[in-house]
Write a sequence for this structure.
C-alpha cells in the first residue's frame, strides 16, 4: 500500500521503531507483512510480558481497565474520557489518547491529587534501560498535548532481589518503581521534536526510505525486518566478522567493502580472530590451528556429552527462587566408550514441582564416574555451580563434575573456523558446517537461548 493512499498515524511502538530506523517505521506502517515470522522464543517473551503487565495492575487496587482492544482505539479514547472524570477511580489501565495523530495506550495512569496523574510504564525486564525512556517520553508528549497534568513518570520493572515465599506474590516487593520524569522530559525537549519531524516526512513519502543495513539493525533490538533488508546481502557480509566494531564497519563501508572476501589482507584494525575469519573466507578454506590435535588429545574415555535445558521465568515458579532465576529441568547425556559404542540417557521433569533435586540426583546417578564431560559453552558448568549452592549436600559431587568438563565451544572458537559458520560459533551454525548430514533439529535438546 502506498503512503499517499492513507493518512498515516504514529503510535508508541511506531515511534520507537522510527527511533531505531525510519525504514523500519515505514515498513511497520505500510508493509507489515514483510516482517520476519515471530519464533516461539519471541512469543514466549511477549506472553511473559503480558502476564507481568496484568499482574502489575494489581499493585493499583481499584483501578479500572479500558477494555477496548487496540484496533478499537476511538472507542477506547471515549471510554477513557468518561472514566477520567470519575474522581473515585484511583487508576486507569490501558487509558487511550490521541494527539496530533499519535495514538497511545498508557499501562497505568494513577491519580495524583485532584487534577493530576502519575504515568507508569510497566516493563517485564529486570532493570530500566536507556531505550525505555522514549517509550515514556512519547506518552508524556501525548498526555500533555491533551491537557492531562502528569506529575511524575515512572518505569515499573521486576525486582530480581525478590525471593518468592509461596502463595500470592508480594507485589510491593516483586515490582520496583523508578522515577524517570527528568530523563523523559529531557528526551521530549531535546530529541523528540526533530525525530518526529523526520518520521512524519518518511510516513508521508511515496517511497520506502533508502537506509543501509548496519549495527542499528540489531540495536537496541533485532529489527523485525532484518530478513527482508538482508535478503540481497552478499554471501559473507562484513557484519559477520566476530565482534566487529562500528568504527571498523564504517571504515569498511567507506572503502566500498561490503563482503569479507573484499577485505585486503593488510586492512588495519582487525582483531586476530577477525583476521582469521577474513583469511578463511577469502581462501574458501577452513582455518585449523596447529594446537587443535593436542587439545583434542586431552579428552578421556568414556566421553560424556552433556546438555542441559533450563527456563527462567519472570514470575518465580517455586518457593525460594527469584524472578528470572535459571531453573534446569532437562538433561541429555550421550556416552561414548573407548570401543566407540554410544549410549544415551536423559531426564525430563514432567510435573509442576521444583525440578532441581530430581535433576541433580538423576544426573549424579547417571554420569560415569570418570572420563571427560564435553559441553558446548560454560553453561552446564555454571548451572552445576549454582546447584551446588542451592543443594549443598550435593556440592562436592557437582563440583567434581565441573572439574571434568571440556568446553568444545572454546576449543572451536580458538582453533577452528569454517566459512560456513558465517561469523557465528553457535551450535546452530557450527553443526551444519562440520557434520553436514546432521542438522540442528537432530539434536536431543535444542537450547532456546543458546542456539539462537
Ligand atoms: S533491518 Fe536495518 S535497515 Fe532494515 S528496516 Fe530494520 S533497522 Fe532499518
Amino acid at each position: 500500500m502506498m503512503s499517499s493512499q492513507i493518512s498515516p498515524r504514529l503510535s508508541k511502538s511506531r515511534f520507537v521503531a522510527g527511533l531505531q530506523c525510519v525504514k523500519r517505521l515505514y515498513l511497520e506502517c505500510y508493509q507489515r507483512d514483510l516482517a520476519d515470522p515471530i519464533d516461539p522464543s519471541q512469543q514466549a517473551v511477549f506472553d511473559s510480558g503480558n502476564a507481568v503487565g496484568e499482574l502489575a495492575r494489581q499493585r493499583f487496587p481499584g483501578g479500572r481497565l479500558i477494555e477496548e482492544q487496540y484496533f478499537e482505539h476511538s472507542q477506547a479514547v471515549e471510554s477513557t474520557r468518561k472514566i477520567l472524570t470519575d474522581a473515585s477511580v484511583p487508576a486507569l489501565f490501558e487509558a487511550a489518547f490521541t494527539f496530533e495523530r499519535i495514538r497511545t495506550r498508557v499501562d497505568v495512569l494513577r491519580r495524583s491529587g485532584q487534577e493530576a496523574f502519575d504515568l507508569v510504564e510497566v516493563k517485564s525486564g529486570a532493570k530500566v534501560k536507556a531505550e525505555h525512556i522514549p517509550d515514556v517520553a512519547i506518552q508524556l508528549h501525548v498526555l500533555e498535548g491533551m491537557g492531562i497534568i502528569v506529575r511524575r513518570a515512572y518505569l515499573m520493572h521486576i525486582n530480581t532481589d525478590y525471593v518468592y515465599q509461596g502463595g500470592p506474590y508480594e507485589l510491593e516487593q516483586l515490582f520496583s518503581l523508578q522515577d524517570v520524569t527528568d530523563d523523559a522530559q529531557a528526551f521530549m525537549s531535546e530529541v523528540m521534536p526533530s525525530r518526529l519531524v523526520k518520521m512524519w516526512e518518511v510516513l508521508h513519502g511515496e517511497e520506502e526510505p533508502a537506509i543501509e543495513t548496519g549495527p542499528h539493525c540489531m540495536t537496541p533490538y533485532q529489527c523485525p525486518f532484518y530478513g527482508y533488508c538482508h535478503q540481497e546481502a552478499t554471501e559473507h557480509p562484513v557484519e559477520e566478522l566476530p565482534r566487529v566494531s562500528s568504527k571498523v564497519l564504517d571504515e569498511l563501508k567507506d572503502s566500498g567493502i561490503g563482503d569479507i572476501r573484499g577485505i585486503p589482507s593488510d586492512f588495519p584494525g582487525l582483531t586476530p580472530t577477525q583476521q582469521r575469519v577474513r583469511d578463511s573466507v577469502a581462501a574458501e578454506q577452513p582455518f585449523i590451528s596447529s594446537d587443535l590435535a593436542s587439545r583434542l588429545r586431552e579428552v578421556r574415555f568414556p566421553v560424556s556429552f552433556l546438555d542441559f535445558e533450563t527456563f527462567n521465568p519472570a514470575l518465580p515458579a517455586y518457593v525460594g527462587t527469584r524472578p528470572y532465576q535459571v531453573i534446569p529441568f532437562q538433561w541429555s547425556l550421550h556416552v561414548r566408550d573407548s570401543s566407540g559404542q554410544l549410549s544415551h540417557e536423559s531426564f525430563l521433569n514432567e510435573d509442576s514441582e521444583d525440578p532441581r533435586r530430581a535433576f541433580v540426583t538423576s544426573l549424579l546417578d547417571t554420569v560415569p564416574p570418570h572420563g571427560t564431560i564435553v559441553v558446548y559453552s560454560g553453561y552446564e558448568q555454571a548451572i552445576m555451580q549454582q546447584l551446588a549452592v542451592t543443594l549443598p549436600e550435593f556440592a562436592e559431587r557437582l563440583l567434581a563434575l565441573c572439574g571434568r568438563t571440556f568446553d568444545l565451544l572454546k576449543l572451536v572458537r580458538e582453533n577452528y573456523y569454517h566459512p560456513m559458520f558465517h561469523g557465528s560459533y553457535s551450535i546452530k551454525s557450527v553443526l551444519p558446517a562440520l557434520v553436514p548430514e546432521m542438522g540442528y533439529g537432530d539434536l536431543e535438546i535444542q537450547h532456546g537461548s543458546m542456539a539462537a
User: Anything to note?
Assistant: The radius of gyration is 26 Å.
